[in-house]
Design goal:
This protein is α+β, with helices and mostly antiparallel strands and 91 residues long. It is 30% helix and 18% strand. It folds into two domains: 2-50, no CATH class; 55-91.
Length: 91
């Protein structure tokens, strides 16, 4: 995997090729030649023109269900804590 940057249009591009093979790629935004990135801190503040694809594990069918379940559990815990505080204030 390699990251490249275009200082002309202040953008960054991720490619699924080794850094040694990424020379000569053109910026999809403005068409100028992309520069290789040696340190990821060089990408801070640049807009992403091509994002890194998600891994198959993150795209699983039950991923959304797990997130929904965690949200429901958090809401239930907050509701229970709120009710406990209300009950503690009652004489």
């Amino acid at each position: 995997m390699s990251h490249s940057k275009c200082l002309r249009c202040r953008s960054r591009v991720w490619r699924d090729v080794p850094a040694a093979e990424s020379a000569g790629f053109l910026c999809p935004g403005c068409g100028s030649e992309l520069e290789p990135v040696t340190d990821l801190s060089e990408l801070i503040g640049l807009r992403a023109l091509r994002v890194r694809p998600r891994s198959p594990l993150r795209q699983s069918a039950d991923h959304s269900e797990r997130i929904s379940q965690q949200i429901r559990q958090t809401i239930a815990a907050h509701d229970a804590e709120r009710q406990r505080r209300i009950d503690a204030l009652r004489p």
